[in-house]
Amino acid sequence: MSSFEKQVVLITGAGSGIGRATALAFAQAGGQLVVSDVNEAGGQQTVDMIRQAGGEAAYITCNVADPEQQSAAVSFAVGTFGKLDVAVNNAGIGGRFARLIDQSIADWEHMMAVNLGGVFYGMQAQIRQMLHQPSGGRIVNVSSIAGVKGMPMGAPYSAAKHGVIGLTKTAALEYVKKSIRVNAICPVYTHSAMVQELMDTSPEMEERMRRVIPIGRFGQPEEIAQAILWLCSPENDFCTGQAIQLDGGMTAG
Prior knowledge:
Layout: E1 8-12, H1 17-28, E2 32-37, H2 40-52, E3 56-61, H3 67-81, E4 86-89, H4 105-130, E5 137-142, H5 155-174, E6 180-187, H6 193-199, H7 205-211, H8 221-232, E7 243-246
Parallel strand pairs: 1-2, 1-4, 2-3, 4-5, 5-6, 6-7
EC number: 1.1.1.47
Enzyme class: oxidoreductase
Protein name: Glucose 1-dehydrogenase
């Protein structure tokens, strides 16, 4: 496992699922965690889990769709631990399962504000801080397999996740000379509250979702976390601007 000893790591949406698993993995590797979420109870629970295991963590409430709260989260990280080495823009929401013409304008705007705006605002605040640090930094944005493929019945979600990859590639090129590495991950269905909500829409949904994954199962949050850790590790200085597909073989054929 890579060492993140005394590396300061900010993770949005760290109160559950992939965000929590990633926070725990970074803490186990020696990182100092800033846990961010709109769900205070979930975020505090993640902090408690890290501290009980002997790690360092602090919580801040952050609505990623609010640029001022994103800036406040970065300021909190610097004020608490002195710097910002790693940022994982993980927070996101699922959308209403409906055909494109049946999607409401309000749902579209909310999806864009959280899933795409949240990454844009986050990177703005994070990169501004990293530019002041000689060591630069590492950023991973959580897209989705829906960011590289069409997602019938989920047009707003797919559009937002495609946008995350565009932001990732652009930021990677703009700041590659500043020792800032920016990558994205694109998980397939992974055990989380969001995926559970999707499965609950109909009795056969889980089996339908599982059938499209060649490996025959959903991803585990801990598996996604390990990929994020590698992208942020000191061993990775060469990989930037990439959208890593963690899909159980879905896009191989």
